[in-house]
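Input:
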Amino acid sequence: MVEKVGAEEFLVNMGPQHPSTHGVCRLLLKMDGEVIVDVVPYVGYLHRSMEKIAENRTYLQYMPLTDRIDYVSAMFCNHVFCLAVEKLAQIQVPERAEYIRVTMDELNRIASHLIWLGTFALDLGAITPFLYCFREREKILDLLEMVSGQRMTFNYMRFGGVSKDLPFEFIPKAKEFVQYFKPRVDEYEDILTNNPIFLGRTKGVGILEKKTAIDYSVTGPNLRATGLRWDLRKEEPYSIYDRFEFDIPAGTKSDVWDRYMVRIQEMRQANRIVEQALESIPEGEIKTKTPTVFRPPKGEVYARIESTRGEMGFYIVSDGSTIPYRVKLRTASFSNLAVLPLMSRGWKIADIVAIFASLDVIMPDVDR
Amino acid sequence: MSIKTMTKEEITKTFQDKFPNKIEEFPFVGVDAAFKVDKDLILEVCKFAKETPELSFDLLACLSCVDYIEHMELVYNLFSFTHKHKIAIKTSLPRDGEIDSVTPVWNAANWHEREIAELFGMTFRNHPDPRPILLPEDWNEGYPMRKDWEGKDFVRLPKK
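Output:
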């Protein structure tokens, strides 16, 4: 494909080190003047062979590595690994641990969407939302550090529950954060949503049809922006999501603006879930006892959750020993990145920046 | 189309009616039904799974490859948005084997098959774009995800 360059076309390298590629991703752009004819993504700069390492560590030794699959939303990676092993070994999780897991998940969802919003607005030229979003994210990271001791890669969940109980000042501080965060989303919307420059750069840009999205296995907010109101928390409720009331936002025209709106609404809904969980958290144990030398039974399992970028799944093959035989990580960004060439033909370079940022792809997820 | 989630017996019966004596069930936690097919039938089975209205498996959730030293297995996890049932299909093929690519059925398989081809050493016939994806272009040290691959600093834990 790249060999056949027409008479007036040329190749531009949007290299792995670039402020707008959200990580190390190389895009080879085939351009005709200022219009893009084709985009070829080259990935693999952050390949750390997570799947190969999994065949050489025990189950519990692998838990800190799952954090690093998607370090921006690390609680989800921990959670899906625990879900898969608990399904295989049929371990029950106590009530209090489930409420704690849901609270941590949704706080992490807000934190991840804040990073996305800050960098997305920064790519388009709006510098103020970047600092506002990181100010809120600092408060969430304080809460998560109170619980697990870490700001970014938590290593918090264990098979059968969570590793440490909530300190006594967590619930009042978290309730304070929930009330503080509600008007903040309105503040971000004030700056961006009806701004004519923002609308000019995002309305009608980078359209993805619903059929194409399903064909390419795009999941998460990108799929919801195409109009399919699909969320694994409502369709296949894992953990205790069926006890909470929340809405699923969906878009209509599936352009960049729709994807932005879906994520803003998701932040509001995640805040709602945290509020409900903090009201009704029960007392009790935080972890069922599992044997020290943990050997799940022989078999295969596939478990998936709705993480911030889409569906994240773990396929684990166990041969009855302490070390898994095969762990396959199905990450959301790997499939989401494959639609980038389709969405960007015919647009200009400035639009590529907007489209790439709206997909919310993160490179450790793609390369593992 | 109305939602009609099928049970394990109904799904297995639908597949067995269309492909008699070629479907073999096996246990798999987390899906409604799971069965093994022969590797030459995989493209037909996947087309049937996607296009039949009662099944309509339109999402290829995960395509993985497992290396059992004498043979390798490919596992396809399929899911349906309309009817909300899920299955897993498995085929078994020898090492360095060839199999048809399912890219004509789901375009999602494109990148997944590229990754399997370079990490495990399998060839996919009729794949539209067989280039390496994760490893560098000048990689010539074998197929890393195979069980007998010896890297320079790879030290194995003792199995217990």
